[in-house]
Specification:
By secondary structure, the protein is of the alpha/beta class. It is built from 5 helices and 5 strands. Helix 4 links the parallel strand 3 and strand 4. Helix 1 (about 10-25) packs parallel to helix 5 (about 140-150) and helix 3 packs parallel to helix 4 (about 90-95). The N and C termini lie far apart (about 40 Å).
């Protein structure tokens, strides 16, 4: 449960549904769900191949959807649930959007930028540092990624 007594597992499961759908489209299986006041306001999976857009990461897609709906570039009352540790690109967008909390399932030792790599939120140039929680549904998210890449080798 989060501080607001919302069901973290339920939101992370919805992110996993988006990740599985991304895998079925041939995309790297990462899914994200953005939540405000216990309600899902946006959800997406990676679409970089489909949209021919290297920035079409699940996190950016949900941030764009929610900002458009809110008619604001800031989402300070929102929480992000994502199946993989955000990369530097996504961490930057999370910071600029002023997202309150980030929950991620699997660590990304190679491309992650929250607990790995540049640790973007710990940098003095970071505009906003959200609360970060990791490890929810980590095994399932990790296995989804491993099986996706194993099938392509």
């Amino acid at each position: 449960m989060t501080k607001d007594n919302y069901d973290v597992a339920s939101f992370m499961e919805q992110a996993l549904v988006e990740a599985r759908a991304a895998a079925e489209r041939g995309e790297v299986p990462v899914g994200a769900v953005l939540v405000r006041d216990g309600e899902v306001v946006a959800k997406a999976g990676n679409r970089t191949l489909e949209l021919h857009d290297p920035s079409a990461h699940a996190e950016l897609l949900v941030i764009r959807q929610a900002c458009a709906a809110a008619k604001s570039q800031r989402l300070p009352d929102c929480d992000l649930y994502v199946t993989l540790e955000p990369c530097t690109l996504c961490a930057t967008a999370i910071s600029f959007a002023r997202i309150r909390r980030v929950y991620f399932a699997a660590d990304d030792a190679k491309g992650g930028a929250v607990t790995n790599g540049v640790r973007f939120f710990d940098q003095p140039t970071c505009h906003h540092e959200p609360e970060v929680y990791s490890g929810m549904c980590e095994v399932e998210a990790g296995e989804l990624l491993r099986s996706f890449f194993a099938a392509r080798r």
